[in-house]
Amino acid sequence: MGPTVDPLAEEAEDDPQSNAISAAYTAAFLDWYHEGLKFGDGKTYVVSAEAWKTWDFKHKIPGLPFPSPALTNTGVDLAHAMAVNRNLRVRLLNGYFLLATPFFASEYMMGHLGLDKSLQSHIEMKYYPAGHMMYVNEGSLKAMKADLADFLARTSK
Hints:
It contains five helices and four strands, in the order αββαβααβα. By secondary structure, it is α+β, with helices and mostly antiparallel strands. The strands form two sheets. A two-stranded antiparallel sheet has the order 1-2. Strands 3-4 form a two-stranded parallel ribbon. β1 and β2 form a beta hairpin. The chain is globular.
């Protein structure tokens, strides 16, 4: 929970979880961007923009000649990519304590891709005692790093 001037407002003014970590991540990113990559000298980098408010959500679904006016569903793109490239493997990282994204949404989406049964085993799920940004929790970060190293080692051969 965070403070708000108007408790009856339709939208919150701030996001307390974002406020808690954004400054540290912004500083680390800008250091890497400017010092590590030696890029962007004299340029302004906008860390958080409200571009999503004007985003065009129409989506071109593989196999259809026109964009869909419905909400974007990238699951159809994933299913198409997995059908075309039968070597493609997918790993989803999930936090148990999600407030920003629904916990069961990724399981539901993966279960409704319409994949051939032979491809269903190409999708792996991992769960962490954290939110959707599991790297904020040190124990989850270590487990996530080990899980990703294992996944990359097995699937990059």
